[in-house]
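Final report, closing paragraph on structural work. Over the funding period we assembled a curated collection of sequence-structure pairs, and we close with a single example.
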Amino acid sequence: MTTDRRFADMLHHRAKRLRRGDPVAPPLVSATTFHLPGLEGASHLYGRMAMPTWEEVEEQLAILEGATVVGFPSGMAAIAAALMASLQAGDRVVLPSDGYYTTRLLADRFLAPLGVRVELIATADMDAAAFDGAAVVFVETPSNPGLDCCDIALAARKAHAAGARLIVDNTTMTALLQRPLDLGADLVVAADTKAPAGHSDVLYGHVSGREPQLMARVAEWRKLSGAVPGAFEAWLLHRGLETLEVRLARMCASARVLAERLGNHARVRHLRYPGLPGDPAHAVARRQMADFGFLLSFELESEEKAEDFLNRCRYLSQTTSFGGTHSAAERRARWGDAVAPGFLRLSVGVEPVEPLWTAIAEALDA
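Its predicted structure, as stored:
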């Protein structure tokens, strides 16, 4: 099924269930308790097990992913669930050394003390790495914040040959721009806080997969750990998903323009954007992405120059997230990422591209 068809089906996912006079948009149902004179035939039992508004959003996401989806209160909750459902004491897990740093902290502070052996490999080295003896291989492509890429289909073949499962963090791309499950991944995790919700006002995440027993274990982890999303957050995510495709189209188109212009600016060093033909990740990105995303990274001369640029640019929010309607940038070294002091991650929003570029260029030239 094409991405266009999936998105159309997602927009009309309630159509077949609507009766005359029903609301087209799913209602916000925040009830935690339900009428239970008897259990047999009850659609809902208790809010920690399921809520109607979660289920609407899970249905939307399942259409986009082409798989079963379990929702969580954040992207990190989804990552934790996928790992806990797939690992046990004595297992070896491979993680990206240059991916989202909180995943590494989770492994170091909680998985390792439980007897899980953790191995870190850079994203750019995943294609050549051996996964022998691993139970889980976890990749993030493009990596955050460096935007290196690895071949998902190759990683899946190698992981399965080694007897391991492949988990892919697809937060930077979403299911509209990259489809890890179609490329052989066993599970996908994503922070819907980013582009899917899109308005910087909700935390949400999900796990998707096509193996019923594994997804049942993910759902059991949610129920028993209590890592459940709120109904209002699910409803906000529903609103964001309705416009995801049009926002992504604008964001990706603007990112290409900015990448080309930043690449020619005298003050910009080490620009990374997978959509540029000269980028080290371009070849693999072309094979597995529908578009090249809305994230760029580059370096300025120093920490002082980078901070000055951020303070001067009137159309860049200084935030630590990405994927929102507002373009945003931050100096990632402040969080401890292994990057240069002047390294910046830029998330392109939905502003008209020419005013945005003018603001960026003026701040660079000031």
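The chain has two domains: 3-241, 244-365. The chain has a mean pLDDT of 96. We thank the funder for supporting this effort.
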